[in-house]
Design a protein that fits this description.
By secondary structure, this protein is of the alpha+beta class. The chain has one domain: 2-Layer Sandwich (Cytochrome Bc1 Complex, Chain A, domain 1). The chain contains eleven helices and five strands. A five-stranded mixed beta sheet has the order 1-5-2-4-3. The termini are far apart. The mean pLDDT is 94.
Length: 289
């Protein structure tokens, strides 16, 4: 912990030129990655001028005017939201500046389409982003976690993979969904990698799949077993346990957060998930490739 404290409180910033060069190279490479870029562009539109819109890959940062002073000011302003330690020690003394998470309200969500064409790409990525519940809305976020699992979070048996990849004879290279319940908002993102010439067909199937609000009891129970099993497997390692429990102090969630999660989703009915599917807002569609 002493090494971590020293790194955060007194970092070495003498090699700023090397750091800027590395950051510029990293952003340049990631802006050419169709999957990463599509998510960044979708978030940029969905969240308007909110801080969540400022994904670095959505902007071609050059860091031309960056100085050591800027870096020092940024480091001095750093505050720790939470620190989760999984260790045999009963007590660790930690000397870091802490703060509490402050929710930043979102005035309105954006919608619409963005199409970024990159030369020389075989694959085009589609990212469809929907606003959703934030992590502090426990029951709402719990429902969407299960809904996301049905849609695209169970690999080969997920709806999106079956509809876009299997039933349409390989219309996409991959198709899945992910749900990020963040502090000020959540976002549900549906992804697929396709060839540009079949983009329209793939997009229609993706939107049609998202519009199918019928959920079977079998689908629901499979998704619940998947979520509970994933929790248990993740919690078997110190790293996984730290990852799971770090969200609790970060956002001030109840200490029995995961017990509440398991109890709540175990009582869900198919109509609960159907209602969430029907209430999805108009999305942002970002195409890159």
């Amino acid at each position: 912990m002493k090494l971590i404290e020293d790194m955060l409180l007194s970092p070495v910033i003498d090699r700023i030129d090397d750091a800027i060069r590395e950051a510029r190279t990293s952003i340049g490479i990631n802006r050419e990655d169709t999957a990463i870029r599509s998510v960044a562009e979708a978030l940029k539109v969905l969240f308007n001028d909110h801080p969540y819109s400022r994904h670095p890959i959505a902007y071609d940062y050059k860091f031309i005017d960056m100085t050591k002073g800027h870096i020092k000011d940024a480091i001095d302003a750093l505050r720790v939201l939470s620190l989760t330690v999984v260790a045999p020690e009963d007590y660790l003394e930690i000397n870091l500046p802490f703060t509490n998470y402050v929710k930043v309200p979102i005035d309105r969500f954006g919608s619409g389409d963005v199409d970024i064409r990159l030369e020389g790409k075989v694959q085009t990525t589609v990212a469809i982003a929907y606003p959703s519940y934030d992590v502090m809305d426990l029951e709402g976020s719990f429902r969407v976690m299960v809904m996301n699992t049905i849609l695209g979070g169970m690999g080969l048996v997920s709806r999106l993979y079956r509809e876009v990849r299997v039933k349409r004879g390989g219309l996409a290279y991959y198709a899945y969904s992910m749900y990020w319940p963040l502090g000020s908002s959540g976002v549900l993102i549906v992804m697929a990698g396709v060839r540009r010439e079949v983009l329209k067909d793939a997009l229609n199937v993706m939107l049609s799949t998202m519009g199918d609000s019928v959920v079977s009891e079998e689908e629901l129970r499979m998704a619940i077993r998947n979520r509970v099993g994933r929790l248990k497997v993740t919690g078997e390692s110190p790293e996984g346990m730290a990852m799971l429990h770090s969200v609790i102090p970060t956002y001030g969630l109840p200490t029995d957060y995961y017990e509440r999660f398991i109890n709540y989703i175990s009582r869900l009915r198919p109509e609960d998930i159907s209602r969430e599917l029907r209430s999805l807002s108009k999305p942002v569609i970002a195409v890159v490739g």
